[in-house]
Each structure stands twice: as C-alpha cells, then as structure tokens.
Amino acid sequence: MSSEEQLAGQPPTAPPGAPGPGRAAAPAPPEAPRREAGGAPGGTTIADGAPAKDLPGPPPPSGAAADQAPAGHDAAAGEPPPARIAPVVIPRGVQLVALLLGALLLYSLAKAAGTVLLIFTVAAVIALILNPLVAFLQRRRLPRGLAVLVVYLSFFVTLGGLGYLLATPVSNQIKAFNRDIPSLTRSANKSLGNAQKFFDRNGIHVQVVKPGKTALQTLQDRLSKESSSIVSTTGDLLKSAVSVGFDLILVFVLSVYMLIYGQRIGALVRSVMPAGDGTPEDDYPLRIQRAVSGYVRGQLLFSLIMGTSAGVCLYLVGLIGLFPAGRTYAVAFGAFYGFMELIPFIGPVLGAVPPITVALFQDPVTALWVLLLFLALQQLEGHVVAPQVLGHALRINPLMVIFALTVGGAIYGLVGALIALPVAAVLRETAIYLRRHVVFESWGAKPPTPPRPPPADAG
Known about the structure:
Layout: H1 3-8, E1 34-36, E2 45-47, H2 64-68, E3 88-90, H3 92-113, H4 115-139, H5 144-179, H6 181-201, H7 209-232, H8 234-260, H9 262-272, H10 284-319, H11 324-328, H12 330-340, H13 347-362, H14 364-389, H15 398-437, E4 438-440
Parallel strand pairs: 3-4
Antiparallel strand pairs: 1-2
C-alpha cells in the first residue's frame, strides 16, 4: 500500500493475480522463459513478464553525449536524452559576402527609403516601449485589442497633459525673451565696454568693443529676420504641419497594428532566428523588447529628472540675484535642457548653451556662476542620477554611441539622433544572441570538425 493511498484513505489494492476475499486462488501461470537484458554477455537475467520499471535503462552517456544531455535528465528513465540543437556554422566566404552585401543594402535602404524607413522605425520603437504595458493588461484578463486601446488612451492623455502644463509657460517665456533682446544687447555692450577699459588700463592691446558690437548686431538682426520670416512663410509652415501630421498619424496606425499583432510578429522572428534554449533570458524577441523599452523608459525618466533639476536650480540662482534671467526663463531653460538630455554625451552640453549665453550677455562673472552650476549638475547626473535610473540601460561603448548619433543625425536629422540609440540597442542584442547560437568559421584556423561517435561495443 503506497503512501499516497494511505493519505487519500483508499483501501489497499491487491497485486495482479492475488486472490481476493472470498475468491479461490488462480492457478499459477507457467514459468516464463528467461533471457538476458540487451543480449550482451554477462547481462542481468530477467523474465519477459517483469514490470517495465524493473528493466535496466540505457547506459549513461559518456564523452560528448554526456555534454549534450540536459541537466536533470534521468538516464535510468529509459528515455534517450533529447538532442541538443547544433549551432549554425557560417563559412568564411559567406561571412565576407554577407558583410559587404549587408552594409551596401543597409546604406541603400536608408538612402532610398528615406521617410518611409524612419516612420516604420519610430513606430517599431513606440510599439516596443508600450508592449510591456499591453502584456500587463493582458495578464489581467483584458483582450489584447482593448488593452492596446487603453494603453494608447493613457499615453495620449499623459502627453496632452504634459503639453498643456508646459506649453503656456514656455511660450510666454519665449515671447518675453524676444522682447528682452534689445535690453540684453545693451547690457552686453556695456560689459564689452567695461572689458575694453580693463584691457586698456593693464596695457593689453586687444579690441573687443567693435567686434563685439558687430557680432551682437548680427545676432539681433538674425533674430528679427527669423521672426519676420515666420510671418511671411505661413503657407509653407502650414504645408509642413500637414505633412508632419500625416506622418504622425501613419506612425500611430503602424504602431497600433504592431501591438495588436505583436505575438504573431514575435513568432515570425523566432522562426527566422536560430533557436534558443527555451528560457525567457534566451528568447530573441523578449531580449529586444527589454533592451529597447528599458532604455527608453529610463532615458525619459532621466531627462525629466535632469530638466526639472536644471529649471529649479536656475530659478533659485535667479531668486538670490546671481542670475536674474534664470528666474525669468527657468521653465524654458529647464524644458530645453531636459529635451537635450535625450541625446547622450552631446545633449547636456547643448542644453547648457542658452542659459550660459544669456548670462554672458549680462556679465562674464554671471556666466561663470551659471557654468559652475551646470558643471555641478553634470556631477550630480554622473554619480547619483545615472547609476540609479540607467543602471540597467545598455552598456555601449561611447565611441559607438557617438558614431550612432552622428549617423542617425546625418541621415534623419534630430529625429534620427533620438532613435539612433534604440536602433543601436537592437543591433547590440542581435549581435549577442547570434554570438551564442551561430558559429563563425575562424579565419586563422581550420574549420571545426564534428566529434566522432564512440565505437560500438564488440559482440
């Protein structure tokens, strides 16, 4: 009687052929012929009618076969171990041809497709970012189509709320800056005059007033010209707005379809790529999704934190009188700095240029204080914020980051620079996955030979 039967309260079952209560014993069956297991000399003799669990299993694997047996496989279970999926071996000639053709194809596609490729890339990045939220709602028993609708409604409500909160103060501060351009120019001319007097008193023969006034006048004329050109080119701006609006609608529609059919797309990608080991850590679509969505979400949070910090610090510096313009344009400067933080390495420098330039127009000492403020923000960013927020972001070589930003910006401008790193994330994860599952034939050694099977036992 087994322990499971005792716990379940079941009566003991009699073995086959045993007499039950009130029943005569059956005659004993004739003795079954005995044979040797496996037919090998010296094997264990068993009866043909013995239970299958008493049969000895196959011999344990040895050598290469033992390496191919998965962990936890019971060799005594009588089942052969599943064959391990062999990696794909790429010959040297195929590597060279594929490298050249791939580079040429990517360049030709990026140059010929233009806006179409950019639209599909942006839609794919958005779908990868939002897909974890859709999957979360699916696990809460919500149909996938309805989950996509809920996620997009939340996305647009959040985006519209942020735009409503920032649009009015930023617009007002930009208008105030345009009105203050003449006063900023006069303040800069006064600073140039003071600098010229300092140089003359100390015998330094440098002329800064005339070149400085020329540069300031050129800057003021250019700003005025740009303001008037906006009014004169209203029709062109309207056409551009219509074109951009159509592209945004197309991006929205494509990303919705990618989210709805995300599972089918993932299955298609799995069928094309080399097979993984079946774990989520070795699933190619999941690796891509985690890399891109994790990086973008971390970068957005990082930009929000740094932009808010810059705006608050500039407001406080203006409040104590070190940089009065910082209090006036704190929201505009903070929003611009946060947006530039989306571009790694180069973005923080570009984001600090407007406030430092305005401070330089007022007073060189003020510009020095503002410069020190942004240097302190950089230290806070590198030692506190970045390790906490971007701890799980992609660890890409800085040279590769700059290369990706340069290529993306050269092909598609600012939008190309913004999506360059998500694309680099996809390429990095693809390279890591292929290194695990694809064997490239060595260029300096003989190609690998498959292991020979063990010799068969004699007899």
